[in-house]
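To: structure subgroup
Subject: Chain for Friday's discussion

All,

I'm putting the inputs and outputs inline so they're searchable in the archive.
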Amino acid sequence: MPLSVTRVVLSSQYRSNCYLVRASHEASAGAVVDPGGDPALLLAEVDRLGASVAGILITHSDVDHIEGVAALVAATGAEVWAPAGEVDALRSGLTRGGTRVPPYEPEHEVRDGEIVSLAGLDFEVAGIPGHSVDHVAFCVDGSLFSGDLLFAGSVGRVDFPGGDWDALVASVRRLVERYGPDAIVYSGHGEPTTLGHELATNPFLGELRK
Protein backbone atom coordinates (compact mmCIF):
# COMPACT_ATOMS: atom_id res chain seq x y z
CA MET A 1 0.00 0.00 0.00
CA PRO A 2 1.22 3.51 -0.76
CA LEU A 3 2.63 5.83 1.85
CA SER A 4 0.09 8.23 3.37
CA VAL A 5 1.28 11.84 3.66
CA THR A 6 -0.94 14.48 5.23
CA ARG A 7 0.26 18.08 4.98
CA VAL A 8 -0.82 20.75 7.46
CA VAL A 9 0.39 24.36 7.39
CA LEU A 10 0.99 25.31 11.02
CA SER A 11 2.77 28.66 10.80
CA SER A 12 0.58 31.43 9.40
CA GLN A 13 3.56 33.79 9.30
CA TYR A 14 5.99 31.50 7.48
CA ARG A 15 3.52 29.14 5.75
CA SER A 16 5.68 26.19 6.75
CA ASN A 17 4.56 22.64 6.12
CA CYS A 18 4.15 20.00 8.79
CA TYR A 19 3.58 16.39 7.74
CA LEU A 20 1.91 13.35 9.27
CA VAL A 21 3.46 10.31 7.62
CA ARG A 22 1.80 6.90 7.88
CA ALA A 23 2.60 3.53 6.32
CA SER A 24 -0.82 3.57 4.59
CA HIS A 25 -4.17 5.34 4.73
CA GLU A 26 -5.37 2.59 7.07
CA ALA A 27 -2.44 2.87 9.49
CA SER A 28 -3.18 4.50 12.82
CA ALA A 29 0.27 5.53 14.05
CA GLY A 30 2.16 8.24 12.18
CA ALA A 31 5.38 10.22 12.35
CA VAL A 32 5.18 14.01 12.41
CA VAL A 33 7.81 16.00 10.52
CA ASP A 34 8.63 19.60 11.52
CA PRO A 35 5.83 20.94 13.74
CA GLY A 36 6.68 24.60 13.16
CA GLY A 37 3.77 26.30 14.88
CA ASP A 38 0.79 25.80 17.17
CA PRO A 39 -0.03 22.10 16.69
CA ALA A 40 -3.80 22.53 17.19
CA LEU A 41 -4.62 22.12 13.48
CA LEU A 42 -2.36 19.08 13.23
CA LEU A 43 -3.93 17.47 16.30
CA ALA A 44 -7.40 18.08 14.87
CA GLU A 45 -6.36 16.35 11.64
CA VAL A 46 -4.80 13.46 13.56
CA ASP A 47 -8.05 13.08 15.47
CA ARG A 48 -10.12 13.23 12.27
CA LEU A 49 -8.04 10.44 10.78
CA GLY A 50 -8.32 8.31 13.91
CA ALA A 51 -4.54 8.37 14.08
CA SER A 52 -1.88 8.92 16.73
CA VAL A 53 1.54 10.55 16.84
CA ALA A 54 4.26 7.92 17.28
CA GLY A 55 7.20 10.34 17.11
CA ILE A 56 8.44 13.71 15.88
CA LEU A 57 11.18 14.17 13.26
CA ILE A 58 13.02 17.48 12.88
CA THR A 59 14.90 18.39 9.68
CA HIS A 60 16.55 21.53 11.09
CA SER A 61 16.16 23.98 13.93
CA ASP A 62 14.72 27.14 12.40
CA VAL A 63 11.76 28.64 14.24
CA ASP A 64 9.22 27.66 11.60
CA HIS A 65 10.19 24.00 11.95
CA ILE A 66 10.46 23.59 15.72
CA GLU A 67 8.16 26.16 17.34
CA GLY A 68 5.44 23.59 18.06
CA VAL A 69 7.66 20.75 19.30
CA ALA A 70 7.20 21.26 23.04
CA ALA A 71 3.42 21.71 22.74
CA LEU A 72 3.06 18.64 20.52
CA VAL A 73 5.07 16.53 22.94
CA ALA A 74 2.93 17.78 25.82
CA ALA A 75 -0.23 16.79 23.93
CA THR A 76 0.94 13.38 22.69
CA GLY A 77 3.88 12.17 24.77
CA ALA A 78 5.80 11.49 21.55
CA GLU A 79 9.60 11.43 21.48
CA VAL A 80 11.72 13.68 19.26
CA TRP A 81 14.49 12.92 16.75
CA ALA A 82 16.60 15.96 15.76
CA PRO A 83 19.89 16.60 13.88
CA ALA A 84 22.84 16.18 16.23
CA GLY A 85 24.49 19.39 15.08
CA GLU A 86 21.41 21.56 15.62
CA VAL A 87 19.91 20.36 18.90
CA ASP A 88 21.29 23.33 20.85
CA ALA A 89 18.64 25.62 19.35
CA LEU A 90 15.90 23.24 20.44
CA ARG A 91 17.41 22.79 23.89
CA SER A 92 17.89 26.49 24.52
CA GLY A 93 14.79 27.68 22.71
CA LEU A 94 16.86 30.30 20.87
CA THR A 95 16.86 29.84 17.08
CA ARG A 96 19.58 31.16 14.78
CA GLY A 97 17.35 34.03 13.71
CA GLY A 98 17.15 35.19 17.33
CA THR A 99 13.53 34.07 17.80
CA ARG A 100 12.68 32.24 20.99
CA VAL A 101 10.56 29.08 21.06
CA PRO A 102 9.54 26.83 23.95
CA PRO A 103 12.69 24.76 24.62
CA TYR A 104 12.74 20.98 24.51
CA GLU A 105 15.42 18.34 25.14
CA PRO A 106 15.14 15.84 22.28
CA GLU A 107 15.35 12.18 23.19
CA HIS A 108 17.32 11.25 20.07
CA GLU A 109 20.04 12.86 17.96
CA VAL A 110 20.30 11.73 14.32
CA ARG A 111 23.16 11.67 11.83
CA ASP A 112 23.62 10.92 8.15
CA GLY A 113 23.09 7.26 7.29
CA GLU A 114 21.16 6.31 10.39
CA ILE A 115 17.74 4.65 10.30
CA VAL A 116 14.83 5.84 12.44
CA SER A 117 12.22 3.10 12.80
CA LEU A 118 8.95 4.77 13.64
CA ALA A 119 5.25 4.13 13.02
CA GLY A 120 6.03 0.95 11.08
CA LEU A 121 8.36 2.83 8.73
CA ASP A 122 12.14 2.98 8.38
CA PHE A 123 13.25 6.55 7.75
CA GLU A 124 16.79 6.90 6.42
CA VAL A 125 18.58 10.03 7.60
CA ALA A 126 20.38 11.93 4.84
CA GLY A 127 22.67 14.80 5.78
CA ILE A 128 21.90 17.75 3.51
CA PRO A 129 23.78 20.84 4.73
CA GLY A 130 23.46 24.12 2.89
CA HIS A 131 20.42 25.92 4.22
CA SER A 132 21.73 25.18 7.71
CA VAL A 133 24.83 23.50 9.00
CA ASP A 134 23.42 20.09 9.99
CA HIS A 135 20.16 20.01 8.05
CA VAL A 136 18.86 16.47 7.38
CA ALA A 137 16.19 14.85 5.23
CA PHE A 138 14.14 11.84 6.27
CA CYS A 139 13.74 9.42 3.39
CA VAL A 140 11.22 6.59 3.19
CA ASP A 141 9.60 4.64 0.33
CA GLY A 142 10.73 7.03 -2.40
CA SER A 143 9.66 10.13 -0.47
CA LEU A 144 12.01 12.79 0.91
CA PHE A 145 10.97 15.03 3.77
CA SER A 146 13.63 17.59 3.07
CA GLY A 147 12.85 20.71 5.08
CA ASP A 148 14.22 23.87 3.48
CA LEU A 149 16.90 22.50 1.15
CA LEU A 150 14.79 22.42 -2.00
CA PHE A 151 11.38 23.73 -3.04
CA ALA A 152 9.26 23.49 -6.17
CA GLY A 153 11.01 26.05 -8.37
CA SER A 154 13.32 27.38 -5.68
CA VAL A 155 15.86 26.49 -2.98
CA GLY A 156 16.46 27.37 0.65
CA ARG A 157 18.12 30.65 1.56
CA VAL A 158 21.78 30.58 2.57
CA ASP A 159 22.21 34.04 4.10
CA PHE A 160 21.63 32.93 7.70
CA PRO A 161 24.52 31.74 9.91
CA GLY A 162 25.47 28.23 8.79
CA GLY A 163 24.16 28.73 5.26
CA ASP A 164 26.45 27.66 2.41
CA TRP A 165 25.54 27.80 -1.28
CA ASP A 166 28.11 25.28 -2.47
CA ALA A 167 27.05 22.84 0.26
CA LEU A 168 23.39 23.26 -0.72
CA VAL A 169 24.03 22.46 -4.38
CA ALA A 170 26.20 19.48 -3.40
CA SER A 171 23.41 18.23 -1.13
CA VAL A 172 20.87 18.35 -3.97
CA ARG A 173 23.32 16.45 -6.19
CA ARG A 174 23.79 13.77 -3.53
CA LEU A 175 20.04 13.34 -3.13
CA VAL A 176 19.60 12.83 -6.87
CA GLU A 177 22.44 10.31 -6.97
CA ARG A 178 21.19 8.50 -3.87
CA TYR A 179 17.44 8.39 -4.48
CA GLY A 180 16.95 9.00 -8.20
CA PRO A 181 14.88 11.49 -10.19
CA ASP A 182 11.50 9.97 -9.30
CA ALA A 183 11.87 10.61 -5.57
CA ILE A 184 9.06 12.82 -4.28
CA VAL A 185 10.20 15.91 -2.40
CA TYR A 186 7.99 17.05 0.47
CA SER A 187 9.45 20.46 1.26
CA GLY A 188 9.16 22.73 4.24
CA HIS A 189 7.18 25.23 2.15
CA GLY A 190 4.98 24.95 -0.91
CA GLU A 191 3.81 22.01 -2.97
CA PRO A 192 5.46 18.60 -3.44
CA THR A 193 7.75 18.08 -6.41
CA THR A 194 10.27 15.49 -7.60
CA LEU A 195 14.04 15.54 -7.72
CA GLY A 196 13.96 14.99 -11.48
CA HIS A 197 11.60 17.87 -12.14
CA GLU A 198 13.70 20.26 -10.08
CA LEU A 199 16.93 19.06 -11.65
CA ALA A 200 15.46 19.74 -15.09
CA THR A 201 13.62 23.03 -14.45
CA ASN A 202 14.64 24.72 -11.21
CA PRO A 203 16.31 28.04 -12.17
CA PHE A 204 18.64 27.84 -9.16
CA LEU A 205 20.09 24.48 -10.14
CA GLY A 206 21.48 25.33 -13.55
CA GLU A 207 25.02 24.33 -12.51
CA LEU A 208 23.79 20.77 -11.94
CA ARG A 209 22.59 20.57 -15.54
CA LYS A 210 25.99 21.35 -17.07
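Points worth raising on Friday:
Residues 18 and 83 are 17 Å apart (CA to CA).
The mean pLDDT is 96.

D.
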